[in-house]
């Protein structure tokens, strides 16, 4: 995400000494012809470029044993691990699902890649869609997808979402998207249901047996113009339609849902979070502390529901 100048999870960082061009389907001037499952891409046509990934200290994630790098297989470029790294690994190209797999002999906490243009007459670009760090340890594998400004349509337009998501073989997909949709002029409950129908269909094509959890859209405010060119933030009534849509979808697909909208207090509740220092002034985004609280609440709800319905408990 650092390469794309977007928000990055705190447990890793990406680095580069070159220049990359960012593309997001939510922003017309950044339009690209093809998007991956993350909905955002970075491109380069430089003679030489590089990027690196490093896990950060003081987090649960300490190492990884393999990495899947999702990219276009452009014959005009060589893409490889830095020769000076000293790493021992096995390299496999999985073109059908759009990634290069690097399996290391030892656990590592960082890796650097080089991109070299070998056909100077070719004006096409090398495209990086994202990556997946994996270990051989038992337990949950967690992958997050999304970017600033993303909407449901952003992922519907991701032509490579299905083959790339298939490479992860997800057992559970949690949908937590829709805030930006509620700020659209044509948003309705029917709009939300229709767009989610498309997203669910794409996920089921990638992993037919995976479970689904929907997260209701958070309460949020919209900016309106008032007299004398002044503006103000007012409650967004479309969040109520979005809330109804998610509850309807959960029944339609016999899926679980986490009612974050009601957990945070329902309609107009974002103002209370902002007053407590847990949301930004725009009353759309949470503060860092607010996001931590939301994450902890969701994790607690997930664990409680898991144990309440676990076959282990019934035995």
Q: Explain this structure to me?
A:
With 315 residues, the chain is an alpha+beta fold. It has two domains: 12-134, Jelly Rolls; 169-314, Rossmann fold (3-Layer(aba) Sandwich), CATH 3.40.50. 25% of the residues lie in helices and 28% in strands. It contains eight helices and 15 strands. Strands 2-3-10-5-8-7 form a six-stranded antiparallel β-sheet, with no helix packed on it. Strand 13 (221-225) and strand 14 form a beta hairpin. Helix 3 (189-206) runs parallel beside helix 4. The longest helix is centred in the C-terminal third of the chain and has 22 residues, at 288-309. The radius of gyration is 21 Å and the shape is globular. It starts with 11 loop residues before the first strand and ends with a helix. The model has no long low-confidence stretch (mean pLDDT 89).
Brief digest:
25% of the residues lie in helices and 28% in strands. The chain is α+β, with helices and mostly antiparallel strands and 315 residues long. The chain has two domains: 12-134, Galactose-binding domain-like (Jelly Rolls), CATH 2.60.120; 169-314, SGNH hydrolase (Rossmann fold, 3-Layer(aba) Sandwich).
Order of helices and strands: EEEEEEEEEEHHEHEEEHEHHHH
- CATH classification class of the largest domain: Alpha Beta
What is the radius of gyration computed over CA atoms, rounded to a whole number of angstroms?
A: 21 Å
Helix content range? 25-40%
Strand content: 25-35%
User: Which strand order does the major sheet show?
Assistant: 2-3-10-5-8-7
Kindly report the CATH topology of the largest domain.
Answer: Rossmann fold
Summing up helix and strand content along with how strands pair, one would put the structural category as alpha+beta
Overall geometric form: globular
Number of helices: 8
Uncertain regions spanning at least 5 consecutive residues = none
Q: Distance between the terminal alpha carbons, to the nearest Å? A: 44 Å
Number of E-type strands: 15
Largest beta-sheet characterization: 6 strands, antiparallel
Q: Architecture of the largest domain in CATH?
A: 3-Layer(aba) Sandwich
């Amino acid at each position: 995400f650092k390469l794309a100048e977007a928000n990055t999870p705190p447990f890793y960082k990406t680095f580069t000494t070159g220049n990359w061009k960012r593309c997001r389907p939510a922003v017309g001037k950044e339009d690209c012809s093809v998007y991956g499952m993350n909905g955002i891409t970075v491109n380069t046509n430089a003679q030489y470029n590089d990027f690196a990934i490093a896990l950060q200290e003081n987090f649960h994630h300490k190492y990884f044993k393999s990495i899947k790098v999702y990219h276009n297989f452009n014959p005009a470029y060589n893409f490889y691990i830095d020769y000076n790294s000293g790493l021992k690994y096995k390299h496999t190209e999985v073109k059908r699902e759009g990634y290069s797999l690097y399996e290391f002999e030892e656990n590592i906490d960082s890796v650097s890649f080089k991109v070299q243009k070998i056909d100077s007459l070719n004006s096409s670009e090398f495209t990086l869609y994202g990556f997946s760090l994996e270990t051989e340890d038992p337990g949950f594998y967690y992958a997050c997808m999304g970017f600033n400004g993303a909407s449901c349509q952003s992922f519907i337009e991701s032509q490579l979402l299905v083959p790339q998501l298939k490479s992860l073989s997800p057992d559970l997909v949690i949908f937590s998207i829709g805030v930006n949709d509620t700020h659209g002029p044509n948003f309705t409950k029917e709009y939300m249901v229709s767009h989610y129908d498309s997203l669910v269909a794409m996920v089921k094509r990638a992993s037919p047996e995976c479970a689904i959890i929907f997260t209701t859209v958070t309460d949020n405010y919209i900016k309106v113009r008032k007299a004398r060119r002044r503006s103000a933030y007012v409650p967004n009534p479309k969040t109520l339609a979005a809330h109804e849509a998610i509850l309807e979808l959960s029944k339609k697909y016999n899926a679980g849902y986490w009612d974050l909208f009601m957990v945070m207090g329902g309609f107009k509740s974002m103002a209370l979070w902002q007053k407590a220092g847990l949301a930004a002034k725009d009353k759309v985004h949470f503060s860092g502390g607010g996001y931590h609280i939301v994450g902890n609440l969701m994790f607690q709800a997930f664990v409680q529901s898991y144990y309440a319905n676990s076959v282990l408990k019934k035995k």
